Amino acid sequence: MVAFGKKLKERSIEEWQEYYINYKLMKKKVKQYGPQIEVGSLDRRHVLKDFSRMLDHQIEKIALFMLEQQGLLSSRLQKLREWHDALQDEPDLSEISKLREAYRSVGQDLLKLLFFIDMNAIGIRKILKKFDKRFGYRFTNYYVKTRADHPYSQLQQVFRHVGLGAVVGAISRNLHELQNNEGSYLSIYDQPVLPLQDPVVDSIKNAVDRLTHSTNFLNFMAQHALIMQDEDLLMIPADEQAEQEEGRYHFMSLLLNLANTFLYMVNTYIIVPTADDYSMSLGAAATVCGVVIGAMAVAQLFSSVYFSAWSNKSYFKPLIFSSIVLFFGNLLYALAYDFNSLALLLIGRLFCGFGSARAVNRRYISDCVPLKIRMQASAGFVSASALGMACGPALAGLLQTDFKIKNVTFNQDTLPGWVMAVAWLLYLVWLAISFREPAREPEEIHTSQESTSADQDGSMEKGLKKPLLLASEETEHDEEDDGDGSEESSDDSRKPANSFVAAYKLLTPSVKVQLLIYFMLKYAMEILLSESSVVTTYYFGWSMSSVSIFLFCLGLTVLPVNLVVGSYISNMFEDRQILLASEIMVCIGILLSFHVVIPYTVPQYVFSGFVMFVSAEVLEGVNLSLLSRVMSSRLSRGTYNGGLLSTEAGTIARVIADATITLAGFLGQSMLLNVTLLPSLIICVGSIVATCYTYNSLY
């Protein structure tokens, strides 16, 4: 993989060379600070002051040049405006054609300026992260906070590029007025969504989209998808990237991946309301439902690895395999009742876990969906998961019937298996007919585009903070200088991890804390969901329908909560503040759930459950946002990537939680609630302490 400094040199516009960030000089300076701090010739305060001054100078150079170029573009547009006004009085088709080409020429020059800003924005972001990584500071946050809101901020010129909006608007509006001119001058403001636009306008829009990553609901939702784009792709011009993506994206194939995600989540949660009843009908205790539910997660620990590796070569074959395995898994689950076999029930659930293709679904979005709609696709992935989580229990509540066809039983216990078997069979037919295997890129290009831990562009910081904090953290070995200051990129330092052990060694303390938080929230949520049927039946005598409605309502909170947090709360507070507050709220929800007052009431259980679940949902999004920024760039590629690590951490949590429910059942149902909540409380308190310690040491 080519180092950024070399790419900057190769891709920079020759006549503007002196106005780019001097990345080589800045990186060399960062390297020099290390020995100076060790021998005591420089203290921390002096280093921060000196580096800030250097970066201020570089940004000032970039900002002033941008203003100069904007002025030149504005002058040209003013002259074209006068020409345009003259043609309105005396239309001339040949002159109109020349005027249109003149506007396109300005548009091409604007594209050059946008690419100039893009490269410098990446350079600033990379040098800030390199400084943080080498010295263990959070200088990026300090620098952005002190520059972002200052009335004379030059950083705003680079990252908000407000003045360019007027230039983009002038070019777009005039080209639209001149397009197919037949005496009609319909404004873009009258038609905000235009079906056919000039190619130059489309290119400008794509370039602006690459620079502008607003904090909104879509972006926050994308955090949950654990999908991230390789930062090196940001250095490829929009037109080149569009050519690379041509032939790979297929809407129906994307829809099939989202449908797979939805069906798998339905499959996971459709049995939760009836798992205890099914276990008892086979002669086992009600708390064996923990093993029945958790068997799917156990198998997923292994399926995540081989599906992640398989997606390096194909997307279609893993999805076919997944559908077949899930079909037979649900078939076995449904037949276990008539065979009176708990073993067959567990084998069916294991088969369902072995069919988990979520790694393929994420990978397809990361590799094959164009950048301009990748955020929407990532949000669609999360929405499909949330909808499936809500629909699973709701569907179980509707399957209230009992009949036989030729000695095959169809009741509330077996119907979830039969319904999902039919659903996967229909999906398999749809998949075979409609899915299109995307064209594979050459190996050297492909390896740089593999999926990782977090959603693309996963920052929720307000305004200026976002562009600086988009990509995952680099390792200390990335893009090192050699003795004379020239750059080299060590193959070993950029290779993806080839095992879990190698991946674990790349985890920094802050990443380990984020994974601990992810483990905690998944454990707490699994305890709440999996034991809900047993607990509510014991304490309140709820029917299966009541349990289904409760779980359905919990699932419905996911999207509205993310809407509020992604659109409002994330604009008011920093990620780490929301993170700590969410952890505390999860802890409060757990404490409120304990049975310490007799009798245990429905309002207490429902209220504490909603507090815990909603807080955990908020925590998940913020945690993944932070995780995407502290994960090593070497974990953005390969089979053992950051996404796999996060998935495995969450799956292990679910397995342990379900096992805890079954083991606690030996103490009796009266002890089940408090015994299962105690580990949740301990892990939650531990994660809060770890969070406070980690962030206090970094800031």
How would you summarize the topology of this molecule?
Layout: H1 4-11, H2 23-39, H3 44-89, H4 93-135, H5 139-148, H6 155-159, H7 162-178, H8 199-211, H9 217-223, H10 238-245, H11 251-269, H12 275-281, H13 289-310, H14 316-339, H15 342-354, H16 358-368, H17 371-398, E1 403-405, E2 408-410, H18 415-434, H19 443-446, H20 465-468, H21 491-494, H22 500-505, H23 509-530, H24 532-540, H25 544-556, H26 558-572, H27 575-593, H28 602-630, H29 642-664, H30 669-698
Helix pairs in contact: 2-3, 2-4, 3-4, 3-7, 4-7, 4-8, 9-17, 9-26, 11-16, 11-17, 11-18, 12-13, 13-15, 13-16, 13-29, 14-15, 14-18, 16-17, 17-25, 23-28, 23-29, 23-30, 26-28, 27-28, 27-30, 29-30
Task: Describe this protein's structure.
By secondary structure, the chain is an all-alpha fold. Helix content is 71%, strand content 1%. Strands 1-2 form a two-stranded antiparallel sheet. Helix 14 runs antiparallel to helix 18, helix 16 runs antiparallel to helix 17 and helix 27 runs antiparallel to helix 28. The protein is globular, with a radius of gyration of 28 Å.
